[in-house]
């Protein structure tokens, strides 16, 4: 059970600043289990090898640093984060609507791996059938996130700016951030990045229009994270435009059990799952 007064304080900060940091949402021991599982998954290891090949060729493969899947309803280890009551109940309070796990990602930011240009997530989600900037991220640190290894950095109050134009970056990158001239104008007006260093188990919850990014990992330490992307019931994708087949809203059972070593034996999510239009909920 989450404390109501704490939730109210977090809610005010979330809507004021565009993000809130919840320290120790999960334990270090839980994140150690998640890290062991990530290291075992062949598809994730193959992705890291591919990233290093791309970077050696001069590419900036930011999007490829995230391993994404849409299977959010299974009983796998990662669901213990994505469907945790600590996330779903918290955000349902912030948004005054039922929140569900929309899809999940592991950020494979090993030493030498590139970061993300400054961007807003809703710049992408609006093209996938979501009408409002309520599809947004919960960044959960699996490793310690430091300035040296490319911790997340956010621009406070940037969620109040609306969705800004994106593009205009190097053609050798896979991510299009906020237009550089837009960023320059914002910084001239006093907006600035706030780096958020995090310990394993800390969570950063931020709005779909909050500008954020990260530097390259120039250290010898990994910065693995899980990003659980959340959405609200009222923002369930329009099935006519849900091109990547992201999950539609459904009332998700909250997970209350901690992550343990026994969860390493659970089946993996179906990484290739795509949700069909006929899975969309009937409007009420």
From TrEMBL:
Stored InterPro entries: Phytyl_CoA_dOase-like (IPR008775)
Protein name (record): Phytanoyl-CoA dioxygenase family protein
Organism superkingdom: Bacteria
Record carries keyword Oxidoreductase: yes
Pfam families per the UniProt record, alphabetical: PhyH
Molecular function terms from GO: dioxygenase activity
Cofactor dependency: Fe(2+)
